[in-house]
Design brief:
By secondary structure, the protein is of the alpha+beta class. It is built from 13 helices and 37 strands. Helices cover 21% and strands 25% of the residues. Helix 5 crosses helix 9. 54% of the residues are buried. Bound molecules: alpha-D-glucopyranose. Alpha-D-glucopyranose binds next to loops.
Length: 644
C-alpha cells in the first residue's frame, strides 16, 4: 500500500507513473514538524532495525548510522563518509518488526540523518516543498518491489551493452582505438565496446570529431561494428559557446538556462564556456535529443552522458576570482571543490523563473530523458545503450548509470559492492562502476578481483583517468588470468541477461541481501559481504587483499568453481566455510533446486547463442528470458521454461 503526502507546492517530478490519492493526516509512523530548515520527519528506531536504500550513496549496505545529503554533486574524491554523490536517490526502507518504505520525492536537497546524530533516531529534512510516499507491506523485499512497480520499468539496453567495455580518458586517435581492439583480439580477450572520452572531440565540443585525430569516424565505427565491437562516445552536458547553427537556434528559441536578468547563463566545463539546456522548457528535450543524430548518422548506437549534475568549473561570475575562491565548493555541500554557482541561473517552469537550487536534483535525469527519447526515435526499432553519471529517482526508466569517478583501491571495490542493492532499489539494473577504479594506478590483483565482482553487474566497463597507468587487461602479465574472468562473464550471459529481463518485467531487483530470502536465519541477516544475484545465485567476491574468505551458507548449495572454461560443481552443506579463491578463478553458489544456464565462451555478444545453454546446479529447470537482443519487444511471453 502506498500513501502520498504533499508538503507545500512541489514541482512535479513524475517519478511515480500513477497519481496516488493525497492523504491529509499525519504521515504515520513519522513524526512531522515544519521547522525553519524545512519539513522534518522523525522516527525512533528499534534495536534491530536496518535501513536500506539511498541509491548510489556511500557507506555500508545497511545505512543505519549514516548522514547523507541528497544533492547531485560531482565528487571525484569521494570516500565512505562523503555526504553527496552524482545522483539524488531518495528511497529508503526501514527493515524491522514493522517495515516500511519512504520515498522523499523532492527536486531539491534532502538531508538524511539515519541515526547518525542520535543512534536510535532517524531525522529527515526536505528543505523545499516535496511529496512523501510511504509504502507498507509485509517485508522489505515486497516494499522495494512496490516502489519499483510505481516508478516504472527499468531501462533495457541492447544485448551488446551487456558485453565487456574498454574505456580510457582518453584514446587520443583512431590508431589508439584500433590498437585496443587488436590487442583484445590478439590475446583473445572478449570485448563488445570501446568508449571514446573527450579527446575524440574537436576542442572538447560535443557533436564533433577532431578531423586530424579521427579523420573517418564512420569508417572506424563500421569497421569495428563488423567485428562485433561498438563505439560509445562521451557526451558532456554543456554546449560550447560559439556561432554554430545549433547554438544560434538554442539562443533564438530561448532553450538555454538564463541569469536573473534574462540573458543566457554561461559556465565553463571541459570546452571552456558552455550553455546548459533548460530541460524544463517545452521543446528543449526534443532539440537536445535530436542532436544525437550527429552520432547515429555515423552508425553509433551507444552514448555515455557525463557532467550532467551539472558540473561547473567556473562561471562568468567566478571566472576572475582568485584560484582559491574559484575552487571553493558550496559551503553546504561537498563537491569537486569548484564553485558551482547554481544560484546564478534560472529555469522557466510553467512560465515562472525558478532558481536552479529549487530543482537541482532533477537536472541530470532530465538530460537522460531527452537523450533516451531522441535516441529512441533515431534508432527506430533498435535498442541503444545509454548510461549516465547523474540521475534522479526514476531516471532508471531512460538510462543506465555508472557510479562516477572512483579510485583504484580495495576500499572502492568494497564501496562498489555496497552500492549494488541501493542502485537496484532505485531501478538502476543497468549499472556498474569504473572497473579497476578511475583514479590511481590499479594493481594486477586489484583489477582481477574487481573483474570478478563487475562480471555480475550488467554494465561492465573498465575505465581509467588520464594520468594513470594503462588499465586495459592486456597491459598486465599472464593475460590468461584476465581472459578467464572475462570468459566467465560471457559464459554466464544467458543467466545474467535472463535475470535482467525478468527483473525488468517483474519490477524486481537483481542484487539482494540474504535476509530477503532467508528471513528467519539470524546469521544470514547480518551478512553484508555476500549477496544473492537473481533467483539462483549467491555471490561472495573477495573484496580485499586476502586469498581466502569465509562464506556463510544458510542452506546447502552447489558450490561452483570456474577456471576459465569449466564450471566445476560440488554439493556443500549449510553453515560456514572457508574458501580459497585464486586470482584467476571465480567461485559462486547456486541455491538448492535452482539452475543457471551457461553457454560456450566467445569474444563478442554477436557470436553468442543465448538459447544454446547447459543448465548447471541441482535444479531441473530454469525460467529463461530470451529475446533477439536488439528489438524493443520486451514482453512476458519472452520467458520460457527450459529443462535439463
Ligand atoms: C569526468 C567523468 C570521467 C571522464 C572525465 C573526462 O570526470 O566522470 O569518467 O573520464 O570526466 O571526460
Amino acid at each position: 500500500m502506498i500513501k502520498k503526502y504533499v508538503y507545500g507546492k512541489p514541482y512535479l517530478t513524475r517519478s511515480y507513473s500513477e497519481d496516488f490519492k493525497e492523504e491529509t493526516g499525519e504521515p504515520f509512523p513519522f513524526q512531522y514538524q515544519k521547522t525553519e530548515k524545512g519539513y522534518t520527519f522523525r522516527y525512533p528506531l528499534k534495536e534491530k532495525d536496518k535501513i536500506y536504500g539511498l541509491g548510489e550513496a556511500t557507506g555500508k549496505i545497511d545505512k543505519r548510522g549514516k548522514r547523507w545529503i541528497s544533492f547531485a554533486s560531482d565528487n571525484g574524491h569521494h570516500e565512505d563518509d562523503t555526504l553527496s554523490l552524482y545522483s539524488a536517490h531518495n528511497f529508503i526502507v526501514i527493515d524491522g518488526e514493522t517495515p516500511f518504505g519512504a520515498f522523499f520525492d523532492s527536486p531539491s536537497t534532502v538531508i538524511f540523518d539515519l541515526a547518525y546524530t542520535n543512534k536510535d533516531e532517524i531525522v529527515i529534512t526536505s528543505e523545499k516543498p516535496f511529496t512523501l510516499y510511504l509504502i507498507f507491506n509485509t517485508d522489505a523485499y515486497s516494499i522495494i518491489k512496490e516502489h519499483r512497480n510505481a516508478s516504472g520499468k527499468s531501462y533495457f539496453p541492447a544485448l551488446w551493452g551487456f558485453g565487456y567495455g574498454q574505456s580510457r580518458f582518453s584514446y587520443f586517435n583512431e590508431k589508439q582505438v584500433m590498437k585496443v581492439f587488436k590487442k583484445h583480439q590478439k590475446y583473445q580477450l572478449p570485448l563488445d565496446y570501446i568508449c571514446l572520452d573527450i579527446h575524440y572531440m574537436d576542442e572538447f565540443e560535443d557533436f564533433t570529431f577532431n578531423k586530424k585525430r579521427f579523420p573517418d569516424p564512420k569508417g572506424l565505427v563500421t569497421t569495428l561494428k563488423d567485428e562485433g565491437v561498438y563505439i560509445i562516445p562521451i557526451v558532456d552536458c554543456g554546449l560550447k559557446v560559439n556561432e554554430k547553427p545549433m547554438i544560434k537556434e538554442g539562443l533564438e528559441k530561448g532553450y538555454f538556462v538564463k541569469k536573473e536578468d534574462g540573458t543566457p547563463f554561461k559556465a565553463a566545463v571541459w570546452p571552456g564556456f558552455t550553455y546548459f539546456v533548460d530541460f524544463f522548457k517545452k521543446d528543449t528535450k526534443e532539440y537536445f535529443g535530436h542532436l544525437y543524430s550527429f552520432y547515429t548518422d555515423l552508425g553509433i548506437e551507444g552514448f555515455w552522458n557525463d557532467m550532467n549534475e551539472p558540473s561547473i568549473f567556473y562561471s562568468e561570475l567566478t571566472k576572475d576570482l582568485p584560484k582559491e575562491e574559484k575552487k571553493k565548493g558550496n559551503p553546504d555541500f561537498e563537491g569537486n571543490g569548484y564553485f558551482q554557482d547554481y544560484s546564478s541561473f534560472f529555469h522557466v517552469i510553467d512560465g515562472q523563473n525558478v532558481n536552479h537550487y529549487e530543482v537541482h536534483n532533477l537536472y541530470g535525469g532530465l538530460l537522460c530523458e531527452a537523450c533516451y527519447d531522441g535516441v529512441d526515435k533515431l534508432l527506430k526499432d533498435r535498442r541503444g545503450v545509454i548510461f549516465s553519471r547523474s540521475s534522479y529517482s526514476a531516471t532508471h526508466r531512460y538510462s543506465g548509470l555508472w557510479t562516477g569517478d572512483n579510485s583504484s583501491t580495495y576500499r572502492h571495490l568494497r564501496l562498489n559492492f555496497n552500492q549494488l542493492l541501493g542502485l537496484n532499489m532505485e531501478g538502476f539494473l543497468f549499472s556498474g562502476a569504473d572497473t579497476g577504479g578511475f583514479g590511481g594506478n590499479c594493481s594486477r590483483s586489484l583489477l582481477l578481483r574487481w573483474l570478478a565482482l563487475s562480471l555480475w553487474t550488467p554494465l561492465f566497463r573498465n575505465h581509467c583517468a588520464i594520468i594513470f597507468r594503462p588499465q586495459e587487461c592486456y597491459h598486465y602479465r599472464k593475460k590468461k588470468d584476465f581472459r578467464n574472468l572475462l570468459n566467465a562473464r560471457y559464459q554466464l550471459l544467458p543467466y545474467i541477461y535472463s535475470e535482467f529481463g525478468k527483473a525488468v518485467l517483474r519490477d524486481d531487483i537483481l542484487f539482494k541481501p540474504l535476509s530477503f530470502i532467508f528471513k528467519d536465519d539470524e546469521t544470514a541477516t547480518n551478512i553484508d559481504d555476500q549477496l544473492l544475484f537473481g533467483d539462483s545465485v549467491m555471490i561472495c567476491p573477495i573484496l580485499n587483499k586476502e586469498k581466502t574468505r569465509k562464506v556463510y551458507l544458510p542452506v546447502s548449495m552447489t558450490e561452483v568453481r570456474y577456471d576459465g572454461k569449466n564450471f566445476k560443481e560440488t554439493n556443500v552443506d549449510r553453515g560456514w566455510r572457508e574458501i580459497k579463491v585464486p586470482l584467476n578463478e571465480l567461485v559462486f553458489y547456486i541455491l538448492p533446486d535452482k539452475c543457471v544456464p551457461v553457454t560456450k565462451p566467445c569474444l563478442h555478444t554477436k557470436d553468442i547463442d543465448l538459447s544454446d545453454v547447459t543448465l548447471i546446479g541441482s535444479g531441473t529447470e530454469y525460467e529463461q528470458y530470451l529475446d533477439d537482443g536488439f528489438t524493443k519487444d520486451i514482453k512476458e511471453s519472452n520467458i520460457r521454461v527450459i529443462k535439463k
